[in-house]
Amino acid sequence: MSKILIRGAKVLGGDPQDVLIDGETIAAVGTGLDAGDATVIEAAGQVLLPGLVDLHTHLREPGREDSETVLTGTRAAAAGGFTAVHAMANTFPVADTAGVVEQVWRLGKESGYCDVQPVGAVTVGLEGKQLAELGAMHDSAAGVKVFSDDGKCVDDAVIMRRALEYVKAFDGVVAQHAQEPRLTEGAQMNEGVVSAELGLGGWPAVAEESIIARDVLLAAHVGSRVHICHLSTAGSVEIVRWAKSKGWNVTAEVTPHHLLLTDELVRSYNPVYKVNPPLRTEADVMALREALADGTIDCVATDHAPHPHEDKDCEWAAAAMGMVGLETALSVVQQTMVETGLLDWAGVADRMSARPAAIGRLEGHGRPVSAGEPANLTLVDPAYRGEVDPAGFASRSRNTPYQGRELPGRVTHTFLRGRATVVDGKLA
Amino acid sequence: MKRHLISAADLTRDDAVLILDTAEEMARVADRPIKKLPTLRGRTVVNLFFEDSTRTRISFEAAAKRLSADVINFSAKGSSVSKGESLKDTALTLEAMGADAVVIRHGASGAPYRLATSGWIDGAVVNAGDGTHEHPTQALLDAFTMRRRLVGADAGLGKDLDGRRITIVGDILHSRVARSNVHLLNTLGAHVTLVAPPTLVPVGVEQWPCDVSYSLDDVLHRSDAVMMLRVQRERMNAAYFPTEREYSRRYGLDGERMAKMPEHAVVMHPGPMVRGMEITAEVADSDRCTVVEQVANGVSIRMAVLYLLLGGYESAHPSPTTTLDRSAARLPGSTPTAARTEENK
């Protein structure tokens, strides 16, 4: 593999430096590095980050290849600056056996755009009744460390307790989709002023917060670690903050859309805004931004959820929940966190690369940008401004809530172990 | 939004009064030997009903027919998902058939809004009840009934319901009638109080332009109209209230409670009534109960709405762009030439 010299990039937003990639590794970081026979990328004004890591991606394969495949999903990931994604288990069949997680893992290897780390289901068929073979999935080639019934809550307290205990044997983590099912029967949007007016079934904040409260207590009781998926309310932030203050092993993620969008958008009845957990209020958005800034929320995770057009081109109640997010995540974080002064680029690197890699115990990702480290890197042009055009997405699906919205920043290059997967903003 | 009638909140005070005044004109047609106006001749009104609602459908059907429109009843029971065809494809089908107006009843809140704003059809959309969202023509016919009873049919022309105290009782949470009424009555200057057990009031109601009370007895004596909403017995299975009898004791309207209302006050119900639950037979059959009047008034209101939306006073446009403003207030009674103009073209 040839050498690449990234010249004059602001590493983690700091002073301009040169970064020399040799093969799969960062060979040198410094100023005035000799290009030699390396290919030179002039990166003045651009920010160099470690390759982004997503803890929460729906790649849909196997089963729903009409909305996404591992190949199209990893292309979307690379375009968004990601070098590793965790593929959620709610596929058809469910990723609840060593066979399915190995299939997804193998498809990821073949794609070559981004590392794919399969997430294993906590319970058989996501039914919440019987533990899946967590050990077998961990011991498989896929080496699963993160387990989640995402899309469904592990609502049975005993099953959740057992799962938390069981994964201690191999340093696993249970990622909980916190949604009390009885409180959310028929739920269509955040319960509050807007749902009252629109006559849409309410998804109350307490349905999320009560599960999080229970699970942090369970994790503390059995001495295990729990990860909270797509935390969406100000109340959830308070509970996680309290749990962390106790020294408990609790981590949490927030999606880009919950950092930017509110339930006021649902007034359009446009199902592109239908997502689970639902868009919340302005006060929730502000609390989430603050919590991500102060570290209460550990990381940003996309919850990239592709759906075919017909599942969104319909009345609200009939529409599927979810939004694509891989290709807009960094831009939304730039707008909501960097341009508001809440987080610097080093903070972005921490919340979108180092922390999620650490939570997932993912090796070779989320590493510092320094000599000897794997060359998983993302180069972003923060000065760029442009309207989101879903027609240009690498994802197979187009269900973005940002169509036509101007967002800042653009990923110009992504490197996966020294190989450019994105060059000048285009997939290589 | 004035090309369509989706939400009572879209109506200004003047829009609403215009509709009520137009409905008075329409009501006079019903007293004529020939109950028909030629104003919408050649126009097509589709009743697109995804939910069973015979009374609402025949009310719209009668209204459209009295205006000489061609009426197509399209019954598409069940959700678009369960029957396989999407709302979009149904809409495209109606568009291809040349529907000038689509009257839609749908179980999903927001379905009429989607129909009107997604570019699937060009025609006017009239919301005939969507999920637990709104039912604006019901609110209009309720306001019409109140104005007639509390102000007077002729004396009421051009007037609103300023200062009238309206109490709405029952399952507010699941009621599209309540939502539309709160918007419209507030627009018309009335003071609305909602009465229900706390379980049947939505979270977020504190932002509505009305008061909320948990006690029916506290508000009856200061109500000019009391509107009883149907309460489905199934609600008690979801723990909204313990038993039918307890609901009835605390929130039902019987003769004893009705006696606490002021002399002039009326009892209303959008129907269908559950006698013995929210209303006793004694009250339902009393002179103070306007249920039957409401049905008759429903036809007049729906005639007015279709007439104003489809611009019946002018020639048939392929795509109606008429708005409900004062300039459109040329009523069939007051300007008999209006209908003829169309015939001549």
What does this structure look like?
The complex is a heterodimer of chains A (428) and B (345). With 428 residues, chain A is α/β, with parallel strands linked by helices. Helix content of chain A is 28%, strand content 22%. Chain A contains eleven helices and 19 strands. Chain A has helices at 70-79, 98-111, 134-139, 157-166, 193-198, 205-222, 234-245, 256-260, 282-294, 329-338, 345-359, and strands at residues 3-11, 16-22, 25-30, 39-42, 47-50, 52-57, 82-87, 115-118, 146-147, 173-176, 189-190, 202-203, 226-228, 250-254, 299-300, 377-387, 406-416, 419-423, 426-427. In chain A, strands 1, 2, 3, 4, 5, 16, 17, 18 and 19 form a nine-stranded mixed beta sheet that branches. Chain A is globular. The two termini of chain A are 15 Å apart. Chain B is of the alpha/beta class and 345 residues long. Chain B is 37% helix and 13% strand. Chain B has a five-stranded parallel beta sheet. In chain B, strands 2-1-3-4 form a four-stranded parallel beta sheet, sandwiched between helices. The longest helix of chain B is centred in the C-terminal third of the chain and has 19 residues, at 291-309. Chain B is globular. Chains A and B meet through α5 of A and α5 of B.
Task: Provide a quick synopsis of the model.
Chain A is an alpha/beta fold and 428 residues long. Chain A contains eleven helices and 19 strands.
Helix/strand structural class of chain A? alpha/beta
Give a quick account of the main beta sheet of chain B: strands, pairing sense, barrel closure.
5 strands, parallel
Overall mean pLDDT score of chain A? 97
Report the sheet with the most strands of chain A, covering strand number, pairing sense and barrel closure.
Answer: 9 strands, mixed
What's the helix and strand layout?
The complex is a heterodimer of chains A (428) and B (345).
Chain A lengths: L2 E9 L4 E7 L2 E6 L8 E4 L4 E4 L1 E6 L12 H10 L2 E6 L10 H14 L3 E4 L15 H6 L6 E2 L9 H10 L6 E4 L12 E2 L2 H6 L3 E2 L1 H18 L3 E3 L5 H12 L4 E5 L1 H5 L21 H13 L4 E2 L28 H10 L6 H15 L17 E11 L18 E11 L2 E5 L2 E2 L1
Parallel strand pairs in A: 1-4, 1-5, 6-7, 7-8, 9-10, 10-13, 11-12, 13-14, 14-15
Antiparallel strand pairs in A: 1-2, 2-3, 5-16, 16-17, 17-18, 18-19
Helix pairs in contact in A: 1-2, 4-6, 6-7, 7-9
Chain B lengths: L12 H18 L13 E6 L4 H13 L3 E6 L4 H4 L3 H10 L4 E6 L4 H7 L6 E7 L5 H15 L14 E5 L6 H12 L3 E5 L15 E3 L2 H5 L4 E4 L15 H8 L3 H4 L7 E3 L12 H4 L6 H19 L27 H8 L1
Parallel strand pairs in B: 1-2, 1-3, 3-4, 5-6, 5-8, 6-7, 8-9
